[in-house]
Request: fold
Amino acid sequence: MCQTSLPLHAQFDIARLKLHLKNNPEQAQQIAVDQFTYYLEALEENRKLEQKLQSPSLVSFEVSNTKIQNEYDDLREEHKKLLNAYARLQQKNQNLMKLIDTPNNDNSPLTSFLKRFFKGRLNIQI
Reply:
């Protein structure tokens, strides 16, 4: 056998083919044509697959898909920030509403502040 990079089972198939052709020389031409046809078909299929892999539409789809994913991730982060800001504003609004709703309550922070302010500045009794 000659040196080849083929696996052992393929080398065995080649040895069997040689023996078969030696015993049946009349089939050699047909077998050679069939094998060459199979080889050309496999070569053409491989060429088509390589073109498909190098296709700009596939590459552009992958690029656009990555770009869309990045934009989605950025928008999602912005959405989270906005939700957090909205929650903080709601809390501040509730706190302000409590202050506005309880000006007559002597224990409210606004009333206490005004009492301290007027007492310290103007010495007025409230």
